[in-house]
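ARCHIVE CARD
Drawer: 12
Card no.: 0347
Subject: one protein chain, sequence and derived structure
Cross-reference: see card 0346
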Amino acid sequence: MSFVVIIVILIIIILFLLVFSFGFFMGLSRKKKDLKQLEKEQELQKKTQESIISYFLNDKKHSGKEHEESSILPVKIINRGYKRIKNFLKFKKLYLNLKEEDIIKYLRKYFLSYIGIAILILGIGFFIKYSVNSAYINIAGRIFIILTVSVCLIFFAHLISKKFKTFSSILMGGAIGILFISFTISYYTYDVFSDLQVFSVYLGLTLFSVILSLFYNRFELLFLAVTAGFSAPLFTGLYPENTTFLLLYLLLLNIGSVFISLRFKNYLIRLVPSLFTGIYLILIVRHAFQLNQFGSFQTDFIMLNILYFVLIFLAVAYHIKHISDYKLYELMMVVVINMIYYSLGMYMLEVLNPDYKGVFTVLTAVFNMLFLIIVILIRKSVKEQLVYFFGILSLLFLTLIPPVELVGKSITMIWAVETVLLMWVSIKLDIKMLKLVTTFLMLGLITSFVLDVVDNFFAISFNAPQKQLLINKSFVSGLMTSIGLGLNVIISGKSKEVYLYKPIKMSWLRIFISIVSVGALYISLYTEILYRITITIRNENLINTYLGIYNFSFILIAVIVISFIKNRFLKIVSGFMGIAVVILFFS
């Protein structure tokens, strides 16, 4: 019954994709008709504008209010006309780009082929599963069928490779995918092979995939083989006792992807391995903490470091070879890899040895600088972007050493430093999208700070555990949040852009961050003072008196500082704060 349900679901998916394709093609035909109509409207607008301009230039006899009215009206009409033409040209440019890419031909050429190969791979996978469950075919028979089907597909793809290049490469990639998925299911789910046997098989399959992709020089073959290889463990599930083998498997696939990425420029070759590896690493650590099984953590930590090096090199390998410019998403990929590596390493050290967290932070900074030195040694002429980027990443982790050593790990501290460095990079390299990313990261920083404050505030009581004065996790994270946001205000002030993203102005962002920065400093000092007096004094009236003195002093100092800043809005704010000081003093 379940097999029938699966077949029905596959048919529904295929029908949905076909309907989507048909609707897409119909939409393109409608756009062509709309484009012709817009061209006619453009001609009419041009004629209207020409007549208006000629009228505007010739009509100089009017004076007074009539002249002003007649001069303003044509300008407004002309501006509206130009806006319409500008929007039309954008639409036309998009249409021409679609036409140049020949998207209809591309979908006809690839779309159905990918669907067919995907169904074939799923069919073989379900065949293996049901044959094992039903015990109709023995182990030797199953392996023979898998190898026979795959070899026949590869041989057939080779025969038609000259006449049907695209389909043959997709077919060959599907055959390799069948091998990856079949052996993975056999090993993980049914223990058909030993660790050494299946490791040898994966090594052979990885080498075979790399050689085929380079020999045929087809991206489709490469993409299908890589995707099938990385998605194979998803068919089986992750178990803590198999994590070491899984990490070895991921390492092999990533090393193969590095060699392939040197040949192919397409970013998917770098994105797919990084994405799958990050997901698997997060799931491995999460499952280990859920099941409280940390037996293989020491080996996993070593593998994490090796994978980190391979993934960083994978992200920039093509550009090192060809000395080309880096895109924003490629630089962000390096940042995400560093964040995942550092976060997972800190979690693992929490179990292995928390005393080495500071050393691990230093090593992460050294690794980034070492990688930059290696790149410079390999290619003497390196893009300035890469030098800035890895230098900033090294500086980022170096700045985390004191807070990590003194008060332990806190994501708020990490984000506080990251926002400053990313904002500086976005201004230095003039990357508008990076400014937007930094803004969202600042919102995450503020959210994390608020959550920390709430936890710390409700934990304050007379019997609360002792903390070091000022050098504790809650106060240092709040202080770093305030300083980080303040530095962001100063750095963003050097930007020449008026808007962050229309209609949001950079000046609005700076005012908002300034207010939050001062608020974070106030709350951090408030909770620290409240903690100190709560664990030593039991008289509530005396506690309120001390807090009143703090509120009065803080607002008074803030008013004095703001009064020296040449900003009308801030002066108004300082006026309201002065009134608040008087009310608090007499209340």
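Annotation on reverse: The longest strand covers residues 499-501. DSSP finds 20 helices and two strands in the chain.
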